[in-house]
Amino acid sequence: MSSAARWSVAALVVVAALVVAIWPRGNDAQAPSYEDRFGPGGSTPMSVGADPGALSALRADAALEPCPAPSSAPAADSVLAGITLECVGDGSGVDLASALAGRPALLNLWAYWCGPCAEELPYMQQFSDRAGDAVTVLTVHTDPQQASALARLVDYSVTLPGVQDADGRVAAAVGAPAVLPVSVLIRPDGSVAKILPQPFRSVEEIAAAVEQNLGVAA
């Protein structure tokens, strides 16, 4: 082989390696880091719609518990006043201040691509099952991909009620930091008792945090 031919082959090898290095990977596209979405230089994509039929089928598979219904009038200064979000389970609108008024609540902010959220959510389910009506546990999905959230919940066997918050309205209202997961403990009067930007590793950890900050033993 001539020198010119060898150099041509070498050049083709280099080009092929560069193509492989920059070619988009399925996992990268589906599971961006929190920094990519919300950190410096990142941006939140526009709300992504899903085919209504496919979304309906996913909701049926997920069989989520109903979102909480209003039981009393919300306090005028509730931190969640004016925030109405879509219920992930059935697509209905949920006025958060009204739905959570008069009862202690735990809001769990998560996203389908968040690894620590995947580990924590089953513990949230266990805590909710244990607490019953004593504490309202509501998940808040903070990514536009609602269909992906439903698919993940099916994978995790989690049926907690949840709302879709693609624009991060809850995080902004309570002053939550730009990390996931975040648990927000809300008093019956609508004020924030505690913001916990950390993943819980057991149901006992969740119960201890709720008892310490909301005074509810479960």
Automatic annotation (TrEMBL):
<keyword id="KW-1015">Disulfide bond</keyword>
<dbReference type="InterPro" id="IPR017937">
    <property type="entry name" value="Thioredoxin_CS"/>
</dbReference>
<keyword id="KW-0201">Cytochrome c-type biogenesis</keyword>
<keyword id="KW-0812">Transmembrane</keyword>
<dbReference type="GO" id="GO:0030313">
    <property type="term" value="C:cell envelope"/>
</dbReference>
<dbReference type="InterPro" id="IPR050553">
    <property type="entry name" value="Thioredoxin_ResA/DsbE_sf"/>
</dbReference>
<dbReference type="Pfam" id="PF08534">
    <property type="entry name" value="Redoxin"/>
</dbReference>
<feature type="domain" description="Thioredoxin">
    <location>
        <begin position="74"/>
        <end position="215"/>
    </location>
</feature>
<dbReference type="GO" id="GO:0016491">
    <property type="term" value="F:oxidoreductase activity"/>
</dbReference>
<keyword id="KW-0676">Redox-active center</keyword>
<dbReference type="InterPro" id="IPR036249">
    <property type="entry name" value="Thioredoxin-like_sf"/>
</dbReference>
<dbReference type="GO" id="GO:0017004">
    <property type="term" value="P:cytochrome complex assembly"/>
</dbReference>
<dbReference type="InterPro" id="IPR013766">
    <property type="entry name" value="Thioredoxin_domain"/>
</dbReference>
<keyword id="KW-0735">Signal-anchor</keyword>
<dbReference type="InterPro" id="IPR013740">
    <property type="entry name" value="Redoxin"/>
</dbReference>
<protein>
    <submittedName>
        <fullName>Thioredoxin</fullName>
    </submittedName>
</protein>
